[in-house]
Amino acid sequence: MKVSDLRGILTYVPRFREKIFVVAVDGEVAASANFSNILLDLAVLRSLSVKIILVHGAALQIERLAADRGVTLTSTDGIGITDEPTLKVGLDAATTLMNDIMQGLTSVDLRATYANIIIAHPWGIIGGVDQQHTGRVERVDREALTLFLNAGIIPVIPPIGFDGEGRTFRVNSDTIALEVAEAMQAMKIIYLSARDGVLIGGTLLQQLSISEADEIVKKKRSLVDRNTLSKVEAGARACRNGIPRVHIINGNADEALLAEVFSTEGVGTMIYGNDYQQIRRVFKKDIRAVLNLIKQSVEHAELVKRTRADILAQLDDYWVLEIDRQLVACVAVHLYPEAQKAELACLYVSKHHEGQGYGRKLMAFAEQLVAQRGARALFALSTQAFNYFVAKGGYAEVTPDELPPERRKKYDASGRNSKVLQKTVIPTAVEAART
Ligand SMILES: CC(C)(COP(=O)(O)OP(=O)(O)OC[C@H]1O[C@@H](n2cnc3c(N)ncnc32)[C@H](O)[C@@H]1OP(=O)(O)O)[C@@H](O)C(=O)NCCC(=O)NCCS
């Protein structure tokens, strides 16, 4: 591991401390060889004072037990009808699995408890069909969960619920994770399934906004499997109700859990509330981070050296692109109103985030900004990325004579001999009238 990776990880630690993560494990993952690694990952999260609630499914175990007993199931995942024999198999399979999970958690020195905290009601009669012993979450016992978490104990919740009269119901574990996360105002739900997140046509969708997730649920039902669909549906609802992030990752991939939690890009699919990626102004408190971000590029003479005072003097011109509140790219936009020109400067994308369109995103942002402010041309000076501006930004090389007079003087004085690239901008109507 590189020191820079460790620094990256450490930036998350204060943000996650004492926060609640609901980790929902499919039965298939709990039965896999990788499950012992997941338990170790949970131990790492606990050591960083993250509060963990573990929810588990049991579909695979139910299928296996039913096959052993020769029982025909009406549902394996708690969606649809649960008849009496299916409930019996479900209870037995979930109880055995709970025991295995307890053993596993104890083996990595984690304190855990079986948490009977789901108060359920019957799904009832849907479209004229009695869903029998399938339940929905009526209430989550927050007080009990809070007590466990405050005592440093991981509550483990099976896909089973009880009503006030002691009747038992089979409840879908994805929904339990959602309800628990909402009740406890968790920071994340992490769904661990045996699939690589949300794949459509073989392509992994790394990030989904709430509306994109809704779209998948509404229009693309046929494109994702039932297991993934249930997580996307729960994830969209969770984000809409204030859970900032829902991750769907492959629980069978080594280190997937930590990689998802401790990297800005993650490894599976993340459903996010609305503030995931943003371009925002630089504030005084950010200057140091910006200088750190561009340091290497300055050393390589790609960017001109800037001091804290330089940035401070033109603070309003600087913008950063943030992912998960980490600065990953920046750009400056300087206006030369007398020449109706503007300069795009200090464009930089961190090495870890190159090639993902962030440079283009900032170029487009700069264009939009100067168009709104009435400029008619945007220029950029570059020593090593001029082809980038031409090929990806639609700029053309011009002579330094095109620079506004003041800028031309600085250009000559710098001795950098950068190429001058320029692009025509069409001022947007309202702002053009101002110029
Ligand atoms: C140039 C830079 C901003 C590109 O950022 P990015 O987010 O990686 O770029 P995008 O994802 O939008 O575009 C990637 C594409 O540009 C190409 N590209 C990247 N840098 C390039 C360069 N210096 N010259 C030519 N093409 C380049 C990539 O090969 C890729 O091509 P593809 O889409 O055909 O595969 C980034 O590499 C950087 O910060 N460079 C150092 C600082 C610098 O020179 N800034 C410009 C001076 S203001």
Describe this structure in words.
- The chain has 435 residues and is of the alpha/beta class.
- It has 2 domains: 3-274, Acetylglutamate kinase-like (Carbamate kinase); 278-434, Aminopeptidase, CATH 3.40.630.30.
- The protein is 40% helix and 25% strand.
- It contains 16 helices and 23 strands.
- The chain has helices at residues 3-16, 27-30, 35-47, 59-69, 84-107, 142-150, 173-184, 210-219, 226-240, 256-261, 287-299, 308-313, 358-372, 386-393, 405-414, 429-434; strands at residues 20-25, 51-56, 112-114, 118-122, 125-126, 129-130, 135-140, 154-157, 160-162, 168-170, 188-193, 199-200, 203-204, 207-209, 245-250, 269-272, 277-281, 318-323, 326-336, 341-349, 377-382, 396-398, 419-424.
- The strands form 6 sheets. Strands 3-8-2-1-11-15-16-14 form an 8-stranded mixed beta sheet, sandwiched between helices. Strands 17-18-19-20-21-23-22 form a 7-stranded mixed beta sheet, with helices on both faces. A two-stranded antiparallel ribbon has the order 4-7.
- The longest helix is centred in the first third of the chain and has 24 residues, at 84-107.
- The radius of gyration is 27 Å and the shape is elongated.
- Residues 297, 302-303, 345, 347-349, 354-360, 380, 382, 384-385, 387-388, 391-392 line the site of coenzyme A (COA).
- The site of coenzyme A (COA) has 22 residues, from β20, α13, β21 and α14.
